Amino acid sequence: IPSVSSIVPESCLLIVVGLLVGGLIKGVGEKPPILKSDIFFLFLLPPIILDAGYFLPLRPFTENLGTILIFAVVGTLWNAFFLGGLMYAVCQLGGPGLNHIGLLANLLFGSIISAVDPVAVLAVFEEIHINELLHILVFGESLLNDAVTVVLYHLFEEFASFEQVTILDIILGFFSFFVVSLGGVLVGVIYGVIAAFTSRFTSHIRVIEPLFVFLYSYMAYLSAELFHLSGIMALIAAGVVMRPYVEANISHKSHTTIKYFLKMWSSVSETLIFIFLGVSTVAGHHYWNWTFVISTLFFCLIARVLGVLVLTWFINKFRIVKLTPKDQFIIAYGGLRGAIAFSLGYLLDYKHFGMRDMFLTAIITVIFFTVFVQGMTIRPLVDLLAVKKKQETKRSINEEIHTQFLDHLLTGIEDICGHYGHHHWKDKLNRFNKKYVKKCLIAGERSKEPQLIAFYHKMEMKQAIELVESGGIGKIPSAVSTVSIQNINPQSLPLERVLPALSKDKEEEIRKILRTNLQKTRQRLRSYNRHTLVADPYEEAWNQMLLRRQKARQLEQKMNNYLTVPAHRVDSPTMSRARIGSDPLAYEPKEDSENLPIITIDPASPQSPESVDLMSEEPKGCSGLPPSPEEDEEGLVMRVKEPSSPGTDDVFTPGASDSPSNQRMLRCLSDPGPRPEPEEGEPFIPKGQ
């Protein structure tokens, strides 16, 4: 009935089926089976958690790990103590039926009911297709709060058997949280590494490859539970650690087997858990107390809303992508309770907790309210609030390249700033993984394969399978390469169109170039601070040199602007300058011009004032000899300036023009005396000259 399943979540329908089956069994006079805690924790829960851990979206999980941990640890502790304290107050004020329930029992009840259930969250959130950020926040919280729940549950259970609880017991209980959580993660990592190492040697026995994944994961869970560590965190750690190495070693068929077997196994477990919840509700012993049950339900909702609001206000101070009020509402509303709470309640001992039946009744009421009311209304609320949905897009090579490029870029920016951010540590971990871990855990050439090429191979295989399943080459996806098509159907393309493959040496050379130029450019630098910069010893000298050069050029420009050489009968300097500019090589010095004054002109810019340089010009009559008629006729002789040698400084290198006689000549010529203004219509160069 599609109309029903679109409104009611699958988990609600399964509970209804369980209620009907339990009622039917009870109606025929038989005793319905109850969901025993051992069956739940040893057989039904591990497949669901392994499926979640093995296929965990690692990038969004690690990027939001701080937020998830705050919600999982601080949020669960707040819920447990807030709810336990208020329920103790309710029990003290609630009359004769509740007076005997002490503080420890209420705190234990609060720790059981406060944890968000991963099974219920998965069942509801996968149906509404919420965006990736909200899904990973709520689901990550439900996975990681297991450590807090286990610690508080065992702690208060132990305290209940003590005659007196000392401060030392409380301190040890606080440290036991770190032991339980980190111990569970350590057990999972160890088994994950062993599974990856084992898969390195299974190339000749492909049939049993999937068995190692299930075997080592289950051993991780049992080993953690054996020592009262967090089994859920051990399973998640094992799945996350083993997956990249196992997938590189096993065959594609084994990978498909693992994927579909895990999905099937977790789906069956989820179905059985919700059906058993319904059956156990009918079969169990219940003690209904209106005050206790309604107070529990009300305070559960209040604690969840207050915890999310306060923690989000604190988290948003440090997040770049802030959590909006809509996001906060979905996180608070998505705090569903499920079968873990029921099983923990069922584990309670009648000897220390005589009110176990009342606790179980309240737990089942809260589970039913969250799964039915919140689970059924969250989809219309998501649509009403227009919360961003998950976009189903296939990853492409383009996206992968840009993602890796941005990771390198952000790591480089962090290095330049001297900031040890999460990009820096992620890059360190990736380098350690490539240098040491991959060589030990991945067999053959795959250990040296770059991430981009591995991703490309995976995409090609996926598209090739889709192509075959769709019924041939008729509908080729745009991204399928020619190589993929040749692998599927070699006869479909002529031989001459086969792309020539690169040789191993050439491919390795290209990779080496890319590695040396793109990935090994990082150096540890100190944080930038203008007060700690080392002064350049040559900086002052360079500044002085530039100032002197500038002043010298300004002075020379001024002098050349005022300097005018009187026109001679042979030719005027303006015409000579113009002629030399047009053809400088045509004007060679005359044979008998050794004692004549010389003007050298730079042919690069003949029109500029700086191009005239009086190299050797003596005033006629100042030397004591009368001017000869030849000199009088020839006047000034122009010579092309020799190009300066590279590296010489035209300001600081003394030339011939720096002699005292030349400087006196410059002073003499700087003021040639009064000169009649040319009349209107008179040419600039007189006709007689």
UniProtKB/TrEMBL annotation:
<keyword id="KW-0597">Phosphoprotein</keyword>
<keyword id="KW-0325">Glycoprotein</keyword>
<feature type="region of interest" description="Disordered">
    <location>
        <begin position="585"/>
        <end position="689"/>
    </location>
</feature>
<feature type="transmembrane region" description="Helical">
    <location>
        <begin position="136"/>
        <end position="156"/>
    </location>
</feature>
<dbReference type="GO" id="GO:0015385">
    <property type="term" value="F:sodium:proton antiporter activity"/>
</dbReference>
<dbReference type="InterPro" id="IPR004709">
    <property type="entry name" value="NaH_exchanger"/>
</dbReference>
<feature type="domain" description="Sodium/hydrogen exchanger regulatory region">
    <location>
        <begin position="479"/>
        <end position="564"/>
    </location>
</feature>
<keyword id="KW-0915">Sodium</keyword>
<keyword id="KW-0175">Coiled coil</keyword>
<keyword id="KW-1133">Transmembrane helix</keyword>
<dbReference type="GO" id="GO:0016323">
    <property type="term" value="C:basolateral plasma membrane"/>
</dbReference>
<feature type="transmembrane region" description="Helical">
    <location>
        <begin position="68"/>
        <end position="91"/>
    </location>
</feature>
<dbReference type="GO" id="GO:0098719">
    <property type="term" value="P:sodium ion import across plasma membrane"/>
</dbReference>
<dbReference type="GO" id="GO:0005516">
    <property type="term" value="F:calmodulin binding"/>
</dbReference>
<feature type="domain" description="Cation/H+ exchanger transmembrane">
    <location>
        <begin position="8"/>
        <end position="382"/>
    </location>
</feature>
<dbReference type="Pfam" id="PF16644">
    <property type="entry name" value="NEXCaM_BD"/>
</dbReference>
<comment type="similarity">
    <text>Belongs to the monovalent cation:proton antiporter 1 (CPA1) transporter (TC 2.A.36) family.</text>
</comment>
<keyword id="KW-0832">Ubl conjugation</keyword>
<keyword id="KW-0406">Ion transport</keyword>
<dbReference type="InterPro" id="IPR006153">
    <property type="entry name" value="Cation/H_exchanger_TM"/>
</dbReference>
<protein>
    <recommendedName>
        <fullName>Sodium/hydrogen exchanger</fullName>
    </recommendedName>
</protein>
<keyword id="KW-0739">Sodium transport</keyword>
<feature type="transmembrane region" description="Helical">
    <location>
        <begin position="218"/>
        <end position="241"/>
    </location>
</feature>
<feature type="transmembrane region" description="Helical">
    <location>
        <begin position="290"/>
        <end position="316"/>
    </location>
</feature>
<feature type="transmembrane region" description="Helical">
    <location>
        <begin position="168"/>
        <end position="198"/>
    </location>
</feature>
<keyword id="KW-0050">Antiport</keyword>
<dbReference type="InterPro" id="IPR018422">
    <property type="entry name" value="Cation/H_exchanger_CPA1"/>
</dbReference>
<feature type="transmembrane region" description="Helical">
    <location>
        <begin position="6"/>
        <end position="25"/>
    </location>
</feature>
<keyword id="KW-0812">Transmembrane</keyword>
<dbReference type="Pfam" id="PF00999">
    <property type="entry name" value="Na_H_Exchanger"/>
</dbReference>
<keyword id="KW-0449">Lipoprotein</keyword>
<keyword id="KW-1003">Cell membrane</keyword>
<keyword id="KW-0112">Calmodulin-binding</keyword>
<keyword id="KW-0472">Membrane</keyword>
<feature type="coiled-coil region">
    <location>
        <begin position="504"/>
        <end position="531"/>
    </location>
</feature>
<feature type="transmembrane region" description="Helical">
    <location>
        <begin position="359"/>
        <end position="382"/>
    </location>
</feature>
<dbReference type="InterPro" id="IPR032103">
    <property type="entry name" value="NHE_CaM-bd"/>
</dbReference>
<keyword id="KW-0813">Transport</keyword>
<feature type="transmembrane region" description="Helical">
    <location>
        <begin position="103"/>
        <end position="124"/>
    </location>
</feature>
<feature type="transmembrane region" description="Helical">
    <location>
        <begin position="262"/>
        <end position="284"/>
    </location>
</feature>
<dbReference type="GO" id="GO:0051453">
    <property type="term" value="P:regulation of intracellular pH"/>
</dbReference>
<keyword id="KW-0564">Palmitate</keyword>
